[in-house]
C-alpha cells in the first residue's frame, strides 16, 4: 500500500513521528504538502481535506494519513495503525496496548515541550509571552523533563527482555518516537540535555541506537528530513536553555 501523509511542509512537528515510522518500515509514501501544487498536492491539498464538508470522519488537524479508503488522524492513532502492519508493534494485544500507552505518554511530553515557548496561547508570538516562557521553561527543565526521562529510563531498565528497547526484544514505533524527542531536546535545550545524559544513560543510548539504524541513518542524511527550526515544536531560544 502507498500511503499519503498530510502535514505542514516546513516543520518536523508531530508529523515527524509518523515519517520516522514510515521510513523505518521502508513503506512507500508521499509527503503530500511537500509535493508541487501544480500536481494537485502542496498545502492546498491538505486544506481541501480540512475544509471539506463531505468527509464522514474528518480530521481535526494534521497529521493525518490516507491508507486506501481510511483517513486516520492523531499521531498516536496513526502509529497504532502502522505499527502492527510493519513489524513496529508487538503481535499480542497486551503488547500493542503497552506500546500505545508509551506513545501517549510521549505525546504528553511533546505538548509540555511546546508549552515552554508558548505557555499562554499558540495564537500569540513567542515574543508576546517571553517572560512567561522563561518561567515555564525553567520549571520544565527542573522538574517535568527529568520526571518523564526518569520514567522512560525505568521502562527500559524494567524490560524483561533487556534494556535495548522500550517494549520486548525488538524496535517499536515508540522507540522511534523517543529518539525524536531526545533529538528535539538536544536541539532546543543543548545545555540542559548535556546534563541529563549521565542520569538517563539508557534513554540517550536509545537515541544513538536508533540513529545508527540503516534506514533511519539514510533518512536523516536525506533532504526528506526537515531540519529543526524555530517554527516547530522543538525550538532553540538561548534564554530558555536554563540550568535544570
List the helices and strands and how they pair.
Layout: E1 3-6, H1 15-25, E2 29-31, H2 42-51, E3 64-67, E4 70-73, H3 75-85, H4 93-117, H5 130-158, H6 173-188, H7 190-196, H8 201-211, H9 214-220
Parallel strand pairs: 1-2
Antiparallel strand pairs: 1-3, 3-4
Helix pairs in contact: 1-3, 1-6, 1-9, 3-4, 4-5, 4-6, 6-7, 6-8
Number of domains: 2
- Strand sequence of the main sheet, in spatial order? 2-1-3-4
Instruction: Bin the strand percentage.
Output: 5-15%
Biggest sheet details: 4 strands, mixed
Oligomer: single chain
Overall average pLDDT: 97
Q: Mind telling me which CATH architecture of the largest domain this is?
A: Up-down Bundle
Task: Give the N-terminus to C-terminus distance in angstroms.
Answer: 46 Å
Counted by DSSP, the helix tally is 9
Count of distinct strands: 4
Q: How do the SSEs run, as a string of H and E?
A: EHEHEEHHHHHHH
Give me the Rg, rounded: 18 Å
Give me the CATH fold name of the largest domain.
Glutathione S-transferase Yfyf (Class Pi), Chain A, domain 2
Helix content: 40-55%
Structural class, from secondary structure content? alpha+beta
Globular, elongated, flat, extended or rod-shaped: what is the shape?
A: globular
CATH class of the largest domain: Mainly Alpha
**Sequence stretches where pLDDT stays below 50 over 5 or more residues:** none
Amino acid at each position: 500500500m502507498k500511503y499519503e501523509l498530510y502535514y505542514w511542509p516546513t516543520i518536523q512537528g508531530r508529523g515527524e513521528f509518523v515519517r520516522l515510522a514510515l521510513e523505518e518500515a521502508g513503506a512507500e509514501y508521499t509527503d503530500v504538502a511537500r509535493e508541487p501544487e501544480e500536481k494537485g498536492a502542496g498545502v492546498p491539498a491538505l486544506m481541501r481535506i480540512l475544509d471539506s464538508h463531505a468527509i464522514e470522519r474528518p480530521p481535526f488537524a494534521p497529521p493525518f494519513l490516507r491508507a486506501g479508503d481510511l483517513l486516520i488522524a492523531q499521531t498516536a492513532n496513526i502509529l497504532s495503525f502502522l505499527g502492527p502492519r510493519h513489524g513496529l508493534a508487538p503481535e499480542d494485544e497486551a503488547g500493542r496496548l503497552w506500546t500505545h500507552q508509551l506513545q501517549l505518554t510521549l505525546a504528553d511530553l511533546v505538548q509540555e515541550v511546546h508549552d515552554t515557548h508558548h505557555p499562554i496561547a499558540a495564537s500569540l508570538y513567542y515574543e508576546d509571552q517571553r517572560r512567561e516562557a522563561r518561567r515555564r521553561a525553567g520549571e520544565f527543565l527542573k522538574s517535568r523533563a527529568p520526571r518523564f526521562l526518569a520514567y522512560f529510563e525505568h521502562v527500559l531498565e524494567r524490560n524483561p527482555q533487556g534494556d535495548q528497547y522500550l517494549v520486548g526484544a525488538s524496535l517499536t514505533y515508540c522507540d522511534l518516537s523517543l529518539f525524536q524527542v531526545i533529538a528535539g531536546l538536544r536541539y532546543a535545550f543543548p545545555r540542559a540535555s548535556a546534563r541529563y545524559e549521565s542520569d538517563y544513560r539508557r534513554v540517550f543510548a536509545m537515541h544513538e541506537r536508533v540513529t545508527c539504524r540503516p534506514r533511519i541513518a539514510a533518512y536523516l542524511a536525506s533532504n526528506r528530513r526537515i531540519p529543526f527550526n524555530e517554527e516547530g515544536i522543538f525550538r532553540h531560544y538561548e534564554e530558555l536553555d536554563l540550568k535544570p
